[in-house]
Amino acid sequence: MRALQLERLDGPEGLKLVDVPEPEAGDQVLIDVRAAGVSFPDLLLTKGQYQMKPPLPFVPGVEVAGVVRSAPAGSGFKAGDKVMAFTMLGGWADVVAAPPGMTFRMPEGWSFEAAAGTVMNYHTAYFALHRRGRLKTAETVLVHGAAGGVGTATIQVARGAGARVFAVVSSEEKAEVARSAGADKAFLASGDWVSRVKDATKGRGVDVVVDPVGGDIFDLSLKCLAPEGRLLVVGFAGGRIPEVKVNRLLLKNVDVVGVAWGAFIMQEPELTAEIAKGLASLSDKGFVEPVVGQVFPLEQAAQALNELDARRATGKVVLRIREG
Asked: Does residue 281 sit within a domain?
């Protein structure tokens, strides 16, 4: 089968399209891949900067959508089912094997491209807001990087919880993407967004900040928190891991909360089904509608990763593996 394999830790340029044997199904769901998501972990993996460091060569690709070829008894899946799955590795190929517990049916009417960017982003958003952020109805949520895959997913999940949602983005084009995803207001990161957030909340601040960016954004976000607010640390796409003086947390009665969905479900895998049920309900109610950005053919994955690296991407960047 075709697969895009990382042969050198040189970033996206270390990828090469090769022919490799198809994976053995074993006790997993064997999926004929139609589309695969392109994510920030994929980018870090190509540079050897991710916490997981598989030996070279390996096939990246953390999530896919496709058609079941075979499934183990008792998995709930059968040949021909349209599914989306979290794979962690191996998704950028014609065929992938995925754990049954991380494989989910595609909602009716969804494209493979939309489904390919759903599992990691929406499960992360739901875990962040509900499990780690303790979000309540009518609270206000501020989302950084709000036009990207995680950002648009977080906006939609927050709206589904009955929250008011503000977005911080880097351009007017991205502001429109965030508003289209459901943000009530969008502010430019280059402006005095802290003052605008304070004005929009009549000086109180927001209850929850979702920060996948880090760096200076983190420091400014602390100024935006309402009493008992929660700043959720999702990642460091900005490149700098921030530090905080804990006296600032004490004086303001606020929390800084780590969000590592992948690590947590390794310890508590039963949470996956709970989150999937919650997201299915939001999908039925029309809140979950994945925002698909650029779609690239498999052989142009390096270009797709470079779009992420340059922070030009909006919505979820996707690879089309084959038509279907």
From this structure: no
